[in-house]
C-alpha cells in the first residue's frame, strides 16, 4: 500500500496527465471531472484514472465521440474517458441519476 504522501504526489501527477490529455483534445468549452478512486483519493498504483468530459464540442454520435476520446489515450493510457454532451448532463440531472449525484459528491473537477 502507498503512503498518503506517495499517494498525494501520484495524484498530482495523474492530474497533470489529465490536463495534458484535455489540452490535446482541443476543446474550448468543457467540464472535466476525475471520478472513481482517483477522484476520491483512495486509489492504488494500478488504478485507472476515470475521467468524464462534458462538452457540446464532442461529436453527437456516440461511436464518433468514443473514437475522439480514445484516439489520444496514448498520451496517458491509464485514463478511462467517458464523454457526454451538455444535454446528457442536464437529462441525467433532471432524472436524479445516482451516478451524477456521486460525481458531484466525490468527483474532482479539473479546471481547463
Question: Topology of this structure?
Answer:
Blueprint: H1 4-25, E1 31-35, H2 36-40, E2 49-54, H3 62-71, E3 79-84, H4 86-95, H5 98-106, E4 108-110
Parallel strand pairs: 2-3
Antiparallel strand pairs: 1-2, 1-4
What is the highest CATH level, the class?
Answer: Alpha Beta
Question: What amount of the residues lies in strands?
Answer: 15-25%
Structural class: alpha+beta
- The CATH homologous superfamily is named Beta Polymerase, domain 2
Query: What fraction, in percent, of the residue positions are helical?
Result: 40-55%
Q: What form results from the Cα inertia axes? A: globular
Cα gyration radius (Å): 14 Å
Instruction: Profile the largest sheet.
Output: 4 strands, mixed
Number of helices: 5
Give the N-terminus to C-terminus distance in angstroms: 31 Å
CATH architecture: 2-Layer Sandwich
Output the CATH topology: Beta Polymerase, domain 2
Element pattern in H and E: HEHEHEHHE
Strand order of the largest sheet: 3-2-1-4
Q: Report the mean per-residue pLDDT as an integer.
A: 90
**How many distinct beta strands?**
4
Amino acid at each position: 500500500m502507498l503512503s498518503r504522501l506517495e499517494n498525494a504526489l501520484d495524484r498530482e501527477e495523474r492530474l497533470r496527465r489529465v490536463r495534458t490529455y484535455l489540452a490535446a483534445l482541443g476543446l474550448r468549452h468543457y467540464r472535466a471531472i476525475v471520478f472513481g478512486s482517483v477522484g476520491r483519493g483512495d486509489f492504488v498504483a494500478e488504478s485507472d484514472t476515470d475521467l468524464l468530459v462534458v462538452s457540446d464540442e464532442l461529436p453527437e454520435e456516440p461511436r464518433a465521440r468514443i473514437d475522439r476520446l480514445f484516439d489520444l489515450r496514448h498520451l496517458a493510457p491509464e485514463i478511462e474517458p467517458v464523454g457526454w454532451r451538455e444535454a446528457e448532463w442536464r437529462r441525467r440531472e433532471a432524472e436524479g441519476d445516482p451516478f451524477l449525484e456521486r460525481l458531484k459528491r466525490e468527483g474532482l473537477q479539473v479546471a481547463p
